[in-house]
Amino acid sequence: MLDQIEQLSTQLRDYDKRIEQMAKTDYEPTTLMRQIPGVGAITSLAFTLTIEDPHRFGRSRDIAGYLRLLPRQGDSGGSKPQLSITKAGDRMVRSLLVGCALYILGHFGPDGDLRRWGLSLMVRGGKNAKKRAVVAVARKLAVLIHKLWVTGEVYEPLREANRIKAVAA
């Protein structure tokens, strides 16, 4: 049994190397996406292959609706309660983005605007605050990944914080 586990581990390492190589050579936009801490080769490849052409979206914000990372709205009389996200759309990309968001908001997540914004959402309270913050960070992460892909910019983790400092000075 230990030999089988070792053999499977070796195969997994080989597959990881092949995925890394494919991301570097065949799909160049993944390099831009992987600048963001928490976004790896599999997430960037899945995002690239799902979207295919980033220019088919007029704005980067439209990507959240395409990936179904927007909350449903329930209309009943005068109230409009916010419901959970829909389960339609590409399940794998959505779950990979949520996994990235969990890493960003977790204990080992690097400091950055996304993390600070997500933690501020979690502090607001409520019994589902963490769940909502994770989905919100995943949504914002999808928009950020798309924006980097379209513009080719370099990712700045503390862009908003630096902008605020510059305005204050």
Could you describe the largest sheet, including whether it forms a barrel?
2 strands, antiparallel
Helix content: 55-70%
Structural class: mainly alpha
What does the overall shape look like?
A: globular
Name the average pLDDT: 88
Task: Show the helix and strand layout.
Blueprint (H helix, E strand, L loop, with lengths): L1 H24 L3 H5 L7 H11 L10 H5 L4 E3 L8 E4 L5 H15 L7 H11 L5 H23 L7 H10 L1
Antiparallel strand pairs: 1-2
Helix pairs in contact: 3-5, 5-7, 6-7
Provide a brief overview of the structure:
The protein is mainly α. The chain has helices spanning 2-25, 29-33, 41-51, 62-66, 91-105, 113-123, 129-151, 159-168, and strands at residues 71-73, 82-85. It has one domain (2-159).
What can you tell me about this protein's structure?
The chain is mainly α. The chain has one domain (2-159). The protein is built from 8 helices and 2 strands; from the N terminus they run ααααββαααα. The longest helix is centred in the first third of the chain and has 24 residues, at 2-25. It is globular, with a radius of gyration of 18 Å.
